[in-house]
Amino acid sequence: MTYSVSDPGENQTIADGFILVGFSYLNELQIVLFLMLLVTYPVALVGNMLIILLIKLNSSLHTPMYFFLVNLSLLEICYTTNVVPQLLVHLLVEQKTISTAGCMVQMFVFTTLALTECCLLAAMAYDRYVAICHPLHYTTIMSGRVCVQLTGASWTIGLLAEGAETLWLFSLPFCGSHRIHHFFCDIRPVEMMVCVDISKNELMGLTVAALFIMGPFILILLSYILIISTIVKLPSAEGRRKAFSTCSSHLTVVTLFYGTGLSTYLKPISSYTPESDHWISLMYTVVTPILNPIIYTLRNKEVKGAFRKTLEKSICSHS
Fold first, then answer.
1. Mean pLDDT confidence for 170-177
2. What is the pLDDT of residues 67-85, one digit of tens each?
3. How far apart are CA 115 and CA 138, in angstroms?
4. Which long-range contacts link 170-173 to residues 24+ away (Cβ below 8 Å)?
5. pTM to 2 decimals?
6. Which of 13, 178, 233, 238 has the most CB atoms at less than 10 Å from its CB?
7. Which residues pair with 6 in a beta bridge?
C-alpha cells in the first residue's frame, strides 16, 4: 500500500512510510543528545563485545552462567544497534522518515529481543537456583545440552510470538498524519496510527505480556525466594555472602530491565504519554546495554580475574 504522509509542522511529505517525531521538541538540544549518543553507543558496543571475547578466550568462564551472559551481551548489541544508528541520523536531519517495511522490521527485531531477554533472564535465574540450592547436581542438571535448549527456547519464543504480533498489527490500515510520536517503531506509538478498532490486538499484546513477560518474571521471583531461603540457612556468614554475591549481578540486571520495561508496556494505551516514554525507552535502548557489562565486570571476581589474565597474556605476547 502506498500513501502520502504530510507533516504540517515541517511541510514534509513522504510516500509509503511514517515520520518519527522523536526528540524534535528538543530543538537545538538535539545536537547535545546526538553528541551524548555518539559517545555512549560505541561504549555499549565495545563493552558487550569485550564480555563475549573475554568469555570465549578464558576456559575458566566456560560455564552455564557465562554461556547465558554471552547471549545476553549479544542481545544488548542487537538492541542498541536496531535503534541508535537511525536515531543519530534523525537527530541531525529534518526529514525523520522511515518506510513501512523498515518500521515493521525495526518493531519485529526490537520486540523479539525484548521477549527473548525476558526468557533468558529467567533461564539465568534458574541457573543460579540450581547452583545454590542443588550444588551437588549442578553439572548434571545444567549440562551443555540443557543450556543450549533453554537459550534456543528463549529465542524461539521471542521470534514466534512477536512475529505473529507484528504481522497482525501491520496488516491493519494506518491513517491520519502518520506521525509516530517516538524515536523508533515501538508497539504503542504505532498502534496509535491504526484507524480501526485494535481491541483484539491489545488483547493479544496483553496475552503475550502475561505469558512471556510476566511469566518469566514470576519464575525469577520464585527462583530467588528459594535461593534466599537456602542462603539464610547456611551456617557461616562468609558462605552466605559468597552465595549472594553470585546472584547480585543478575538481580541488578533484572531490576534494570523489568523496572524500565514494565513501566512502559504494562499499562493501557489510553495512558500512553510520548515524552516520558521517550526517556524511559532511551534508558533500556542505550543506558542498560552500557551498564550490563559494567555490572558483570565490577561485581564479579571471576570476570575480573579472567580480564587480568587475558591482559597479562596480551602484554607478554607483545614484549
1. 88
2. 999 999 999 999 999 999 9
3. 27
4. 170/100, 170/103, 170/104, 172/196, 172/198, 172/201, 173/1
5. 0.89
6. 178
7. 13
- Residue 140 CA to residue 132 CA, distance in Å, equals 14
Please answer whether residues 306 and 58 qualify as being in contact, where contact means their C-beta atoms are separated by less than 8 angstroms. yes
- Element spanning 230, H or E: helix 215-231
Residue in the block written with cell 553439572: 139
Residue 14 has φ and ψ, to the nearest 5°, of -135, 165
| Locus of grid cell 510476566 | 214
Q: What is the pLDDT of residues 120-165, one digit of tens each?
A: 999 999 999 999 999 999 999 999 999 999 999 999 999 999 999 9
**Helix (H/G/I), strand (E/B), else coil: 13:** strand
Q: What are phi and psi of 176, to 5 degrees?
A: 85, -150
* Residue type present at position 252: T
Residues 259 and 283 sit within 8 Å (Cβ to Cβ) = no
The full set of domains in the chain, from first to last, is: 4-314 (1.20.1070.10)
The rounded distance, in Å, linking the Cα atoms of 254 and 31 is: 32
Residues counted in the chain: 319
Beta-bridged to residue 4, according to DSSP, are 15
